[in-house]
């Protein structure tokens, strides 16, 4: 999977990369995602497909027409996404925000055939950027014993 790919998400499927919703089977262009694995919230979050692509995705993607999507560089803030979707055929544009953004690790619920555009993959996804570094934990007693051990070994060697 690469940035720019369009994937189809089914009900219950886990999202493999950060995406933007383009079209759904719902007449209102709405789908629901579950992010309890990411932020602990159990409520389903509604996501809306842009009016430019809702219901007309196949005709827009036929050559020579292509969608142009401009969006921000990868950022670890999961509550921030800004972009712009433009149809070069008629110059119509629409601002993209969190209403269209689906993070990696979330899952689709109560929706089927959700078409989504991959915007971040691999180490650029918000989930990976938020992992941080692992800190090795050691108790203060173990730390002091290690110092005494090194000190004793240095005395025995000399």
Gist of the model:
The chain is an alpha+beta fold and 158 residues long. The chain has helices spanning 36-39, 57-61, 126-129, 140-157, and strands at residues 6-9, 18-23, 30-34, 44-48, 68-71, 83-87, 92-96, 101-102, 107-109, 114-120.
Describe the structure.
The termini are far apart. The protein is of the alpha+beta class and 158 residues long. Strands 1-10-2-8 form a four-stranded antiparallel sheet, with no helix packed on it. The chain has a three-stranded antiparallel sheet with strand order 4-3-9, with no helix packed on it. A three-stranded antiparallel sheet has the order 5-6-7, with no helix packed on it. The protein has helices at residues 36-39, 57-61, 126-129, 140-157; strands at 6-9, 18-23, 30-34, 44-48, 68-71, 83-87, 92-96, 101-102, 107-109, 114-120. The chain has one domain (6-133): Calcium-transporting ATPase, cytoplasmic transduction domain A, CATH 2.70.150. It contains four helices and ten strands.
* Major β-sheet strand ordering: 1-10-2-8
Mean pLDDT: 84
Structural class category: alpha+beta
Say what the CATH topology is: Calcium-transporting ATPase, cytoplasmic transduction domain A
Calculate the terminal CA-CA distance, rounded to whole Å. Answer: 59 Å
Helix content: 10-25%
Order of helices and strands: EEEHEHEEEEEEHH
Annotation field: number of helices: 4
CATH architecture: Distorted Sandwich
């Amino acid at each position: 999977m690469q940035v720019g790919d369009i994937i189809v998400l089914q009900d219950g499927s886990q999202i493999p990369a950060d995406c933007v919703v383009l079209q759904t089977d719902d007449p209102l262009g709405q789908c629901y995602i579950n992010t309890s694995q990411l932020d602990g919230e159990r409520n389903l979050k509604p996501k809306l497909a842009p009016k430019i692509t809702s219901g007309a995705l196949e005709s827009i993607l036929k050559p020579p027409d292509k969608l142009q999507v401009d969006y921000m560089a990868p950022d670890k803030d999961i509550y921030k996404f800004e972009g712009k979707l433009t149809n070069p055929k008629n110059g119509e544009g629409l601002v993209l925000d969190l209403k269209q953004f689906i993070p990696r690790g979330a899952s689709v619920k109560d929706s089927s055939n959700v078409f989504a555009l991959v915007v971040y993959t691999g180490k650029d996804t918000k989930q990976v950027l938020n992992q941080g570094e692992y800190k090795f934990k050691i108790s203060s007693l173990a730390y002091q014993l290690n110092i005494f051990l090194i000190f004793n070994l240095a005395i025995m060697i000399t």
